[in-house]
Amino acid sequence: MKSKLRKILAGIISFAVLGVSAAVPAFAADKTDTGTGSITGNVTINGSISPLTISVTHPVNVAYAISPDAETFTAPDVKVTNNTKVAVIATVESLKAASGGSLTFTDVDPSAKAWRSLNLADSKKYIALGVAAKGNSGWNSGYSTSTHWAVNDSPLQVGTLNPNTSGALSMTADYGLAFDGAYTANHQLVLQFQLA
Amino acid sequence: MVGIFPANLPRRKEGFYLRQSFRRLFLVPLLAAGILLSGASPAFAASAAPVLTLAATPNPSGNYVALNWTNSDKSQPYSYMLYSKSAHESNFQSIPAKDSAKVLNIYPVVAPTVSFTTWQGKNYTLPKSASLKMWMETPNEYDSKGYGKGLISVDTVSISDFNANPDAYLKNADGSYKYDVLYFGAWDAFASQDLSAAAESKTDAFIKTGRGVLFGHDTMVDNDTISMPNFFKLAHYCDIQTIPHYTVLGSSQIKVSKKGLLTNYPWTIGDVWTVLNVPMSHSNQLAFGDVWMTYQQPYTYPNSAEATGSGGQGTNTFYLTSWSNCAMIQTGHSNGEATPDEQRVTANTLFYLAQITTDTSWNDHKGQDLDAPDEPAISGITHNSDRTQYTVNYSSQDNATGYQYYVEATGQNDGVKYDSPVVSASLKTGMKGYSIVVDNKPDTVPDGSITTTANSYTFSRPSGSSFYIHIAAVDNAGNISAVAHYHTDELVSVTHPVSISYAIDPNSNTPFTSPDIPITNNSTFPVGVSVAGLKATAGIGDAAPTSYSDWNSLTAAQTGSGMALGVGISQTAGSGWTAVDRATPVYTGDLASEVPLGTLGANGASGNLALTAKFGLAWANAKTVSHELTLDFTIAN
C-alpha cells in the first residue's frame, strides 16, 4: 500500500513572482522647495514587500503493512522538515482512500465496525486509517494530539514547526482480518503548510 | 641763524629763503658792527637771534587747531603769515590768519550798473562789473549779512583809477596796506582792460607781502587770440601757464575736486564730487596748482577742448585754482551774473586768501579733521527666533588728521623775515555715530545722518528673501567712512525627491534594499536638516525598533502589524554634510519633537539620507506600504 502526500503552494509561488517584479527601488521626480528662513519638504516612502517562500521537505509516499495473522499494522513515520525562514503550521487537509491498488477501501470511523469479526467481503472493503502528530518529534508545544481519521472531512491542524526543524506524523489503523490473499490499497494524504 | 629755518621749505618759496638767509646773514653783521662802533654792547649780545615759537593745540570740539606764537623781538612790529600742510599734502602753503577779510574789488569799466543796499543799510549804484560788494554785503535768503556773512567787506575801484595810482588805493597814508585781498573782476574778457605796468608792479609787491589776490575771468590770459600781458606777469603766483593757441573749456556746472577750508568756511560748499551751478563760463589757461573745482562734464561751452601741459601736467578743466596766497576763478564770463553757489564759492575764496595778520594767535579752521573713521567692521548679526528682528554688531574708530605748521614773521620796519620751527598737531574729532540703511539694494550709501551712536543696531526684517545692511561711520567733523555692506540672504532652496521606493524580499539574505534620499542645498548658506515627521500612512503600522528582540522570528500576524522604519544621514565622507548632529537613525518614536540630523554646506552641496528598517519575515502575500517623511530645512546659524 502506498500513501501520497501533497502540499498546496501554487498561490504562494504566484505571489512570490509578483514580489520579485516589484522589488526594484526607484526615485520619482525631484522637487525644489523654497522659502524664507525655514521650509518643510515631504518625501513619500513606498515599500514593496514580497511574500516569503514556504519550503517543506516530506516523503513522496510511505508504505504500511497489515498482517492478519499477527494482527499487526506497521507504518513508518511521515517526517516533515520545515526549511522556511520562519515557523510554519502543518495541517492535515485530507486523508482519503484512493484507487490504484488491488483494493479500494471505504474509509469508516474506527468505532463503526467490530473489526475482529468482519467477514472476507467487509475486511476487503472497510478500513479506519488515521494520522496524528508524533509526540516529541519536533513539533512545537501545543501541537494536536488528536488523530485525523480518513473518514472525517474536517482538516486537522497538527502543529507548528520552527525553522530548520522536523516533526513526524504517525499512521494508525483499524482493519479486518479476513483477507484471502495479498492486496494493495492506496490513500491520498494532503498536508497544508502556512506561515505561523 | 640758519638753524631755525624749517626743514620743509615751501616749494615756491625756496628763492625767498635764499634771499632771506642772505639778507639776515648780511644784516646781522652790519647791526653787530654798528653796536661795536657805539661801544654800548659787546658783539655777542647784538648777535642774539630773535626767537619765534609756535604752539599748535587741536580743538576737537571746534574742529580746528588753535595756533599761538610768540616773538622775542620787541624792537619793531611784525606781521605774520602762517604755513601749513596736512598729512595728505606734500608742500606747505600759507593759510588764512584772520577772522575777517577786507577786500578791494578792482573792476573793469562797463556801462551796466547795479543798485543795492548793504546789510548795514547803505545804498550803492555801481557798474555791474563791481557786483562783488553786492554779493558779499547784501542780505539774502541764506544770510542776513550777505554771502560775506559780515566777515567780508568790499571796497571798489575801477581798473582805470587803480592803474593811474595803485598805491592811492592799496595803502593808508602811513604806507601800510588797507586790504587783505584784491579781487580783479568781473567781466567777460575783463572788458579788455589790462593792468598798467605800475599797477602790475604794485600788485606784485602786494602779493609778496603774503596778502591775497583773486584774479577773475580772462585776467591771466596770453594766447594768440586774447592777451593781458601785465596781468599775465602775475600768473606764476597762481601757478598758471598759458595755452599758446586759444583753447577754451567750460560749462554751467562745476564740481568740487578738493576738500579743505575753501570748501568749508564760512560756507559749507560740499564734499568732493558735489556739483554746483554757476553762470556759463570757461577756462583759457592751464592750472598747475591746487584745483578746487572743475567743470562738470559734458562741457557745454561751445568748442570746449581739454588740454594739458607738457608731460600731461596741468589742466584747463579748472574753474577755481589757487596756489599759496593767489587764486583764479572763472567768474565774469557772464558779465556780472552769479548764482548763489558761485557767490558762496567767491566768499570762501576771498576768506581763504586773507592770510596776513599782526595778531599772535589764530584758530586754524583749515586745520580740520578731514579723515573719515575706518570702514565699520561687522562682527556679527543675530536675530530673534522668528527672524522678524535683527541685530547687527559692528565697530569703527575715528582717524586723526595730522598737520604741520610754522609761522613766518616779517619785520614791518626792515622787512626781515624769519620762521618758527615746524610743529605738529593731530586733530581727531571723535566718533559721532553710525549712518545705517537696510534695504534690498547692494550698493546703497548712507547719507551720513546718524542712525545710532551704539555699536549695535536692531531693526525689523525687510520684506523679501534677502536684504542688505549698509553701515557708515561718521565722526564729529562730519567725515563719513567707507560703507560696509552686508548681504543677508534667507532664501532657503532645497531639492529632494518627491518619493522613493524600497523593497523587502524576505527570501533574500539582504531583504531590505533602498536607495538613498539625495538632498541638495541650493541656498547660499548652510542649511540644517531635521526630521519633523516619519509615520506609516498605508498598509502597515509603525513599531519601535526595540519592539522585538528577534525580528526574524515574528509570526505572520506580528510581521503584518508593524515595522520600524528609520532615516538618518548616509555616509559623510566626500559628501556635502558639514556637520552631523545625529549618527543613528531617527524612528517614529524619536519624534516627540523635531530631531536635527546635520548640516548641508552652501551653494549646491549634496548629501544623502539613508533608510533603515526592522521588520518581520513572515509575509504570506505581496504587499505595498507607505510612509510619509517630513524634513525641515533651516538656515544654519
Q: Helices and strands of chain A, in N-to-C order?
A: EHEEEEEEEEEHEEEEE
Helical percentage of chain B: 10-25%
Helix/strand/pairing category of chain B:
mainly beta
Q: Which residue ranges of chain A are poorly predicted, with pLDDT under 50 across at least 5 consecutive positions?
A: 1-26
Rounded mean pLDDT of chain B is: 89
Spatial order of the strands forming the largest sheet of chain B: 8-5-9-10-17-16-15-12-13
Structure report:
- The complex is a heterodimer of chains A (196) and B (637).
- Chain A has 196 residues and is mainly beta.
- Chain A is 8% helix and 46% strand.
- Chain A has one domain (2-6, 54-195).
- Chain A has helices spanning 10-21, 120-123, and strands at residues 2-7, 30-36, 38-49, 56-57, 61-62, 65-67, 72-74, 78-82, 88-98, 106-107, 126-133, 147-149, 156-161, 165-175, 186-195.
- The longest helix of chain A has 12 residues, at 10-21.
- Chain A is elongated.
- Chain B has 637 residues and is mainly β.
- Chain B is built from ten helices and 40 strands.
- Classes of the chains: A mainly beta (196), B mainly beta (637).
- At the A-B interface, helix 1, strand 2 and strand 3 of A face strand 29, strand 30 and strand 40 of B.
- Strand 3 (38-49) of chain A pairs antiparallel with strand 40 (623-635) of chain B, so a sheet runs across the interface.
Write the layout of secondary structure elements.
The complex is a heterodimer of chains A (196) and B (637).
Chain A: E1 2-7, H1 10-21, E2 30-36, E3 38-49, E4 56-57, E5 61-62, E6 65-67, E7 72-74, E8 78-82, E9 88-98, E10 106-107, H2 120-123, E11 126-133, E12 147-149, E13 156-161, E14 165-175, E15 186-195
Parallel strand pairs in A: 1-15, 10-11
Antiparallel strand pairs in A: 1-5, 4-8, 6-7, 8-14, 9-13, 9-15, 11-12, 11-14
Chain B: H1 14-38, H2 43-46, E1 52-59, E2 64-71, E3 78-86, E4 93-95, E5 101-107, E6 113-117, E7 123-127, H3 132-137, E8 152-158, H4 159-164, H5 166-170, E9 181-184, H6 197-208, E10 212-215, H7 229-232, E11 240-242, E12 249-256, H8 261-264, E13 275-283, E14 285-287, E15 290-295, E16 318-323, E17 326-329, H9 340-353, E18 356-357, E19 361-364, E20 377-383, E21 389-395, E22 401-411, E23 417-419, E24 423-427, E25 431-439, E26 456-460, E27 466-475, E28 484-489, E29 491-497, E30 499-504, E31 512-513, E32 517-521, E33 527-538, E34 541-542, H10 556-561, E35 562-569, E36 577-580, E37 586-587, E38 595-600, E39 605-614, E40 623-635
Parallel strand pairs in B: 5-8, 5-9, 9-10, 10-17, 34-35
Antiparallel strand pairs in B: 1-2, 2-19, 3-4, 3-18, 3-22, 6-7, 11-14, 12-13, 12-15, 15-16, 16-17, 20-21, 21-26, 22-23, 22-24, 25-27, 27-28, 29-32, 30-31, 32-39, 33-38, 33-40, 35-37, 35-39, 36-38
